[in-house]
Automatic annotation (TrEMBL):
The lineage of its organism: Eukaryota, Metazoa, Chordata, Craniata, Vertebrata. The keyword Transmembrane helix applies. Residues 125-379 form the Glycosyl hydrolase family 13 catalytic domain. This is Solute carrier family 3 member 1. Residues 1-10 have a biased composition (Basic and acidic residues). Keywords: Glycoprotein, Membrane, Transmembrane, Transmembrane helix. The keyword Metal-binding does not apply. InterPro entries: GH, GH13_cat_dom, O16G_dom_2. SUPFAM superfamilies: (Trans)glycosidases (SSF51445). Residues 1-54 are annotated as: Disordered. The chain crosses the membrane at residues 88-110. Pfam families: Alpha-amylase (PF00128).
Length: 383
């Protein structure tokens, strides 16, 4: 019998002030004090809670303490002094998130576009000679492009890029230009071009054209005047003394053309060699001459005035060459110098991407930015 009472007593949980002792001390001072024998056992501070839950605990006047069981914690969490701050913090968090989302959307809407028009949509490149032939002469032309605009528009194209259509020879896919301000007759007339530009813009499409500032054709008026040393045109191209005997030319250095062999060609009229990065029929312009830079800027303005929206500048890295004319380093240093004839056999440290090249291109950019701010002018950009 005594054993049963002992087990029953061990299953009871003593509660001080209606707090379950779970091994955590609520108040060490209270533990050191002997219970007052004069206090009635009915006092709510000294009550026994049975495991079976037959007696409901009284939490009135009790402070939370570390290690509370969840039953006690739930009683405190529902009190207004704890519930209201929690709800306020919750709704403040929700409001802050909504404000951040709204601010992000507003910033995106009012911020300038990250991409310009020539970057944000498909671009349709056209090589005029192999496009539609409107007059059945065997060559594609500008009218043929205009005839196909409805089809191009169905492709959701945002920009049309037309490759070289300038007056030029058939050398190097028409990149040896004889006149930067003229349409080659096989493609049509300047009137045909103006009609094409208007039709393209009516479709809501932009127009980019090829522009090759690095060189001209040897038939160009500038070159003809330069080889006879006429006025300012004398230094429009890169000329240098060289030895020419019995039909053999000894160039100033070992620089090579992109297409192979020496990039210097002897001109019998001027009795000097001129420099060409590409074919010998395509002499390089001298971009260290300010007059040449001004000529090119005027050509850019000419086509912008015709309604062109932008340009694809070709061969830009070849605009400048080193002035010291030192030999470029061979890739294979053991190779006999006289056998170095292919472009890939040299490191082109003196003939490409020279200091000052970016300044020239920035000058082109400034011309187009200035023009695009003028009233009734289409926005222009460099592609």
């Amino acid at each position: 019998m005594a054993e049963d009472e002992s087990k029953r007593d061990s299953l009871q949980m003593n509660r001080k002030g209606c707090q379950i002792n779970n091994g955590f001390v609520q108040n060490e001072d209270n533990l050191e004090q002997d219970p007052d024998p004069g206090i009635s056992q009915d006092n709510p501070r000294h009550s026994t809670l049975g495991i079976d839950g037959s007696q409901e605990p009284n939490f009135q006047g009790i402070q939370p303490y570390a290690g509370m069981p969840k039953e006690v914690l739930f009683q405190f969490s529902g009190q207004a002094c704890y519930r209201l701050p929690r709800e306020i913090l919750f709704w403040l968090t929700i409001a802050s998130v909504l404000v951040l989302i709204g601010a992000t959307v507003a910033i995106i809407v009012i911020s300038p576009k990250c991409l310009d028009w020539w970057q944000e949509g498909p671009m349709y490149q056209i090589y005029p000679r192999s496009f539609k032939d409107s007059d059945k002469d065997g060559n594609g032309d500008l009218k043929g492009i205009q005839d196909k605009l409805d089809y191009i528009a169905t492709l959701n194209v945002k920009t049309i890029w037309i490759t070289s259509f300038y007056k030029s020879s058939l050398k190097d896919f028409r990149y040896g230009i004889e006149d930067f301000r003229e349409i080659d007759p096989i493609f049509g007339t300047m009137k045909d071009f103006e009609n094409l530009v208007a039709a393209i813009h009516d479709k809501g499409i932009k127009l980019i054209i090829d522009f090759i500032p690095n060189h001209t054709s040897d038939k160009h008026t500038w070159f003809q005047l330069s080889r006879t040393r006429v006025g300012k045109y004398t230094d429009y191209y890169i000329w240098h003394d060289c030895t020419h005997e019995d039909g053999t030319t000894t160039p100033p250095n070992n620089w090579l053309s992109v297409y192979g062999n020496s990039s210097w060609h002897f001109d019998e009229v001027r009795n000097q060699c001129y420099f060409h990065q590409f074919m010998k029929e395509q002499p390089d312009l001298n971009f260290r001459n300010p007059d040449v830079q001004e000529e090119i800027k005027e050509i850019i303005q000419f086509w912008l005035a015709k309604g062109v929206d932008g340009f694809s500048f070709d061969a830009v890295k070849f605009l400048l060459e080193a002035t010291h004319l030192r030999d470029e380093i061979q890739v294979n240093k053991t190779q006999i110098p006289g056998t170095v004839t292919h472009y890939s056999e040299l490191y082109h440290d003196f003939t490409t991407t020279q200091v000052g090249m970016h300044n020239i291109v920035q000058g082109f950019r400034q011309i187009m930015d200035q023009y695009s701010r003028e009233p009734a002018c289409f926005h222009s950009s460099q592609a």
